[in-house]
Amino acid sequence: MPQLSYASTKDSDARYLVRVEIPDPFFLLDTGDRTYIFLDHREFGVFREHNENPAIELVLVNPLMEVAREIPGDGPAAGKLALHILRTYGVRGDAIGVPTRFPLDVADFLRAQGVRLTPTHPFVPQRLRKTNEEVAAIRESLRRTHEAFRTIEAMLREATIVGDAVEYRGASLTSETLKRAAEEALFACDMFNVEGIIVSCGPHAAIPHHQGRGPIIPHSPIVCDIFPRNRASGYFADMTRTYMKGQPSSELARMYSAVREAQETAIAAVATGVLGREVHEQAASVFRRLGYDVGDRGFTHGTGHGLGLDVHEEPFLNATAVTALEPGHVVTVEPGLYYSERGGIRIEDVVVVTDNGCENLTQYPKEFVIP
Question: What architecture is domain 132-370?
Answer without folding.
Answer: Alpha-Beta Complex (3.90)
